[in-house]
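Could you join me in thinking about how sequence relates to backbone shape in a protein? Would you write everything just below, so we can both look at the same thing?
***
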Amino acid sequence: MAARRCLGLWFFLITLCVVSTGADVLHTTPVTGTESSAAGTETVVARELPEAPSDPGEHTAAEPTREGEQNDRTRGGEQTLGQPTREEEQEQEKTREGEQTPAQPTREEEEEEEEQEQTRGEEEFTREEEEEELTREEEELTTEEEELTREEEEQTREEEELTTEEEELTTEEEELTREEEEQTREEEEEQQTTAQQEEQTKRWEATELEEEHVHDAAVPPLAGDPPAADPPSPPPSKDDFQEELVIRPLHSGDIYASFQFRTVWDADFMGDQKVSHYRLFPKSLGQVITKFSVRELHISFTQGYWRTMQWGQPYLPSPPGAELWVWFQDTVTDVDGTWKELTNVLSGIFCASLNFIDSTNTVQPSASFKPLGIGNVTDHSFLRYATLPREIVCTENLTPWKKLLPCGSKAGLSVLLKSEKLFHSTFHSQAVHVRPVCQDPQCRTTSMELRQTLNVVFDLHTSGQGKREWSLFKMFSRTLTEACPLASSSKVYVDVTDNPQGEQFELSPATPLLTQAVVLGDRRTYSVYDLTQQASFGSSRSLNMLLRWKAADGEMLRPLLHSERYVAGYGLQAGEIHTLIYNHHPYRAFPVLLLSAVPWYLRLYIHTLTVSSKGKDNRPSYIHYQPSKDRERPHLLEMLLQLPPNSVTEVTVEFERALLKWTEYTPDPNHGFYVGSSVISALVPSVVAMDTNSTLDRPLFSSFFPCKEEASYFMRVYTEPLLVNLPTPDFSMPYNVICLTCTVVAVGYGSLYNLLTRTFQVDEPSPGLAKRIANVIRRFRGVPLL
């Protein structure tokens, strides 16, 4: 039994050792490839040894001492290498349990780990901020690059504009050079013709001298005969031509340009002697004045309305449309017939619709439109006045107007008159004035004056750029290169009265020449550019004045005299015409003369005429009224009123609309009918003393209206034209009636005519094809037919 117990204990120990060695095998490390290859199929398993203890006196279970090994060898006898004892196994199990159970970290380690996590978060946050800053910098760089590209595009556009302007300048220079070449050719041809004429005259003089010598030799002079005198030479013609351009910057930012061309000829058109030789004076007008015995002729063509409250007063006023008034000489017997012929001739000269002027729109004023030339004519039966408010001004009116100039549109200021720019403006007016003037203060000799004027206002927004700067090239697409060679004076004036220190605008090139002139009762200062002096053109041989605004828009002007007119009422039967006349003078009252010409189809009720100022009745000191006649003459109303200081005078009159014949309506009757502007003539108090001597050398724009008093000056103001609707029938009704009547006639009369003229006959119906074939077969058979 004891032996059995020993054997069982021995087997138990062996199994326990085998189990422990199996656990050690499971915890061993794998062998490298080189070791496994060297050992062949057998693998050597090395046991993992724990780390050496820090204390040398201590020994682990994995490293038994030499004495223990020897004792085990003696005890175990045949014990194999690598099989541990129980103590080693227990120590190994303890170490395995220590390895399996993780070591709990200390507080310091946890704090270190938290600090590391915080540092990692901070690093990530800083990285994110750096990335955001980088993205922002990239976006800023992209925006800067886009701005640079935009600036480069703007620079390229400006360069393109400059190139286009340079090309235009080059084209203009080429045109000017061509024109100069043509002029030089014409001058050479003229010189050749003059040389040929001189040679011919020399030959004629030589032949005449030879004949005289032969005659003298044949007939010797007597001793008592006086010496023969030379034949009198014809007196040289005295004519003069002047041209001026006045540029006035307006407070609204617009530019007002006024051209003045004056031709004075010492010819007697009113005498019996006919004028045949013309040099500077246009022959077409000279012949008209001579044939129709015209003393004064005033004609204007205007497109647009002059805005007095924004632009002030113009140098030469004119109403919208066409205006014509003429003073005939007292030798004319049939004034109306001569007036009709004159309008037809002027219609052909100026290519306008003046032939539509007849007795229905012509009046004979009794107090207005005094002569502007010499002579105090009191018989107004030789005066005729007419307007066409619907006249459209275009290029065909400008071309004949320019042909009246001595230089045409080839040289001088007339080269700026380009129709494309003139008619692309807010206001445009061209006029021709012919009148006799005095040559000396005593008026011992007279001459005929032709004054051609052209006024134009360029709007700030029509240039297309919106910049507050102007130049001759921007306004007229051309520059000045020379004066008219036939002109004795050629100047350009720029009004700098409101710009004494250069605060409002900047003018370049600057000129040292300044002059003062009294215009419309005020003393104005002007910069002068004399085109007859080469210094005005500079080194570029071209004058292109540039005006650049500095300040904002100025305040609205309040002229001393201003007027308005409008139509009131409702319906198409009756209405009222209101005329407002403003006197903005603070303490001076002055008289005005109002003229209104109303067409006959507006029947005025003169008993409803009322005039009021400051809420009180203002009785006119003079009234002239000529009633109208249907289809013969218009209404004419003239009144002399006294305007109180700083007041508004209102003139009101009622009217009734007439029903016209269907042939008297215009092609567009629903557009309305125009009523011409009213005319207000006044002597306005002057701020400075006026010059009554009209023969002194003064700028042309300040010497048109004669002045007889130093304390006042003459002014003419025009109101707006009126557009009135008249009772208009439905012109589509005749068409409808024609269609209906034609339909009734075609249907009713046509059917009745057919019934009356048509004949009816009864025809037997012919047998059919099958029946014919059957009858043929029946004939062959001898059977009776069907």
Notes: The first helix runs from residue 2 to 26.
